[in-house]
Amino acid sequence: MAVSISLVVNGEAHKVDVEPWWSLAYVLREKLGLTGTKIMCNNGACGSCTVLLNGQPVSSCLKLAVLAEGQNITTIEGLADTETGKLRPLQEAFIKYSGMQCGTCTAGMILTAKALLDENPTPTEDDVREALAGNLCRCGNYKRIVQCVLAAAEATRGGV
Amino acid sequence: MPNEFSVLGKSLPRKDALEKVTGEVKFVADMQLPRMLHAKFLRSPYAHAMITKIDTSRAEALRGVKCVLTHENTPNVHPLGKFEYLLDRRVHHAGEEVAAVAAETEDIAKEALKLIDVEYEVEPAVFDAEEAMKPDAPLVHKEYRTNMYYGTEHGHAASPSPRWRKDGWLPLQVGDVDKGFAEADYIVEGVYESPIQCNCSPIPRSVVCQWAGDNLTCWADTQIPQWVSKDIAKCLGMPRSSIRVICNWPVGGYGSKQPEKIATLAAIMAKKTGRPVKAVFTREEEFVATHHRPNYKGYEKIGVKKDGTITAMSHRVIGNFGRDFVWGPEVMSASAAATCGTLYMYQNMKFEGAAVMTNIPDAGAMNGLGDPEMGFIVERAMDEAAEAIGMDPVEFRLKNCARYGSRSLSRRDVLGLSPDELELRPDWINWGIVGHDFDSLQECIRRVRDKSEWKKKWKGWKTPVEVNGTKRRGIGIAIGMHMSAYRPYSAIVKTNQDGSVIVMSMAAEIGQGIRTAMAQVVAETLGINYEDVEVLLADTAATPEGWGVIASGGTASAIPAAWHAAQEVRRQVFNIAVGRLGVKPDELEAKDGRIYVKDDPQKSITFREACLRGYQITGAYVNPNPDDLRDEKTGKTINTYACVATIAEVEVDTETGKLDVLRITSAHDCGRAINPQIVENQIDMGLVQSNGYARAEELIVDKDTGVVLNPDLLDYKLMTILDMPKMDDMQEIVVERPSAWGAFGSKGFSETGATSGAPAIANAVYNAIGVRVRGEHITPAAILEALGKIP
Prior knowledge:
The structure holds 2 protein chains of 2 kinds.
Chain A: E1 3-9, E2 12-18, H1 24-31, E3 50-53, E4 56-59, E5 72-74, H2 89-96, H3 106-119, H4 125-131, H5 142-157
Helix pairs in contact in A: 2-5
Chain B: H1 17-22, E1 37-43, E2 49-55, H2 57-61, E3 65-69, E4 90-91, E5 97-103, H3 106-114, E6 117-122, H4 129-132, E7 169-174, H5 177-183, E8 186-194, E9 197-198, E10 206-212, E11 215-220, H6 225-236, E12 243-246, H7 260-273, E13 277-280, H8 283-288, E14 292-293, E15 295-304, E16 310-320, H9 328-340, E17 349-356, H10 371-388, H11 393-400, H12 411-415, H13 419-424, H14 441-451, H15 454-457, E18 466-468, E19 471-483, E20 490-495, E21 501-505, H16 514-526, E22 533-537, H17 553-581, E23 588-591, E24 594-597, E25 600-606, H18 607-614, E26 618-622, E27 641-653, E28 659-669, H19 676-695, E29 730-735, H20 753-769, H21 780-786
Parallel strand pairs in B: 1-13, 11-12, 16-17, 21-22, 28-29
Antiparallel strand pairs in B: 1-5, 2-4, 2-6, 3-5, 7-17, 8-15, 9-14, 10-11, 10-13, 15-16, 18-19, 19-27, 20-21, 20-26, 23-24, 24-25, 27-28
Helix pairs in contact in B: 6-7, 9-10, 10-20, 16-17, 17-18, 19-20
């Protein structure tokens, strides 16, 4: 039996009819067309489908859509400035230092890192590693990703 | 040297970077088409069984179900090779497709699977390769009377290799090993194993099929679009011109992206229903129904003299290829050619390989095909050989490793393919031809030795680098080699009237960065901006013929084709400029978007102006047959292998068995780094995957039922960021020894990273604890077992 819920995604309110067993990842992708959220493992093991729920990173494949009712969700599509399209420092850094290879983990990495930087603007390498420990990158791009996050932190501090 | 280039050798942003950081990037799994149906597959719970009855009436009656396929209403054809069936009455491993359903939604399709009633007659099954080789073993494919691949005397008619022995072994003998062992001062012998490693492609296998009349479009998540096209054509009896396979969206593949079977099934269902059909595997299906790196068991014997000379090597290898369909001989012959037949200098060498079929999921291609599995075996044995004569393992490798002029075998040498057979299967051949390109192996070893401070850290055999209570630190080296396949490939470069350029190639962007590297090579060749070049990839109706992206053939084959096609465009552009500037073509130079006279740079026209005057300038190029490539000095045909040396430092807690990899230093020869940042990323990919290979990754198959016990990413362990050394302790060394034929000297090097990481860790663990771990894994349990602390 479908349930009607409201979700605020990237600042925009949506009314969606969902089945109670649908995950937030499924609804974002299949019902709202936000396919920037990638599903790799679909059981909470890889962090690819990470979105920010009220600013906190969650695996959207483990979150039932009905439990996200009324909450504020940020997906990768909502990260750049919606008016100007200006990218965030994290996005700029991932471009500059090739933080991605195949691109499956990228959205989850960037959003998890954003939550870290929002909380801790001056992370150490260990802080970044700890924060990203739940995000798998099968292309093995970890070193570069840490470099990107640290560069973004520095750029943010520099007011860029 | 690199300063002479404007675009090449620079870490420019990837062409696909922006779409990947904004979420705009689309995979096939993200596609939606109007009226699209969703496909799901029913899978066998048994490892070996006959389907005695299959009733789909309840499933078909479910509202929203549009099509159900079983072996009863599906053509009895083989999408890939002899052993893969579209849908068969017999199931050969737990997880094999039994039926396919297309329905309005995924939920309905899943529900329908439960409503298909199947009766199975379970048959005896075999899961272990050595068990499967016994004469009385259950047969995986009954029609072949043997489980040994290419055991021709048993009725397997499909062997393309005259050299494969009739008893199912692939034999290879160079020199006289008995004489070689007789000359040895020491002989080391050991049995080593390597685990089943899974590709774990980030996005599971996916396709979308849509028909318009008799024409099919298939968006496929694949590394080899033309195989998908060829196999659909074969199964459905269509000309390839009526099939358009598109994979110009990225694919995270490491060798596994071959969706021929689901593409064909989706195409049939789309035809029957008149609607587009999308099929996306689940993560579990990715584990049970795609192919993996085979488990190898290697019986190694190495003879050495006191001065470090290898007098003889004998490798007897048994590979478990599961149900298999096509890859067994390819992987086994690759192991024989590179790691056994080329990596070390030798006079006397014997190789015997058995590619064995069992009732477990398929083995096949994975990053480094054949060489990581063989390297994990050979490089542990070589370490024991060095120890036997008390020689520093780095010096031992420096003394014995391959170099210019040393013996090198290609896969063709190994398989002994005849010209007729090359004709039959043109896209299977020429992975490795014959020659050099690995002359830099010694340089790789020296540079990795120096960068890792080996001389300071290595304290000799049986002496750890450091002992701190129960914790012991060790250091180890391994070398490796993998094909950098030069083969037929074509490319088209065409100009637009605004001076921008489009490159067309069959190579797919699988994350390796070929879209970026190809654009850099073409921009450099034409003297134009990187931003003015875009690359259209992997569309069988639009891009010219090529072999897909496997065997590190992207940089080795696809990019050279684009490079030469760009040179043809440049030639035409120069001809236009000649008319305007009144000079000869060889007096011209192209740089910064201008064509100018070298001696009088003020005399110039812009590239854009030339494009406008030329209306449409097109350069097309087809790589010459690899046989035509000859080494300049010796006149011999050329073998394109890339090489690597890796040193690992580890810390082992001898109480708990906990293993930490502290530092990895790895030197790779990429010929020339087209984009250094991407080169380093590709090196890291191999290092991270080979860490997992040594320490954690393994597909676990139940020994009694053949059922995969860990088909998810919680139980199949990939390396996390915390499992890898910190930034400063991951040292990639990029060696640039230009290749004679690659674009600007570049080589295909991306898979070498996977070959030497695991044995380097194993050898470092030995240095730390003083006991060899010869089994599949260097886990805490294996370490404690080796130390005699647990039974």
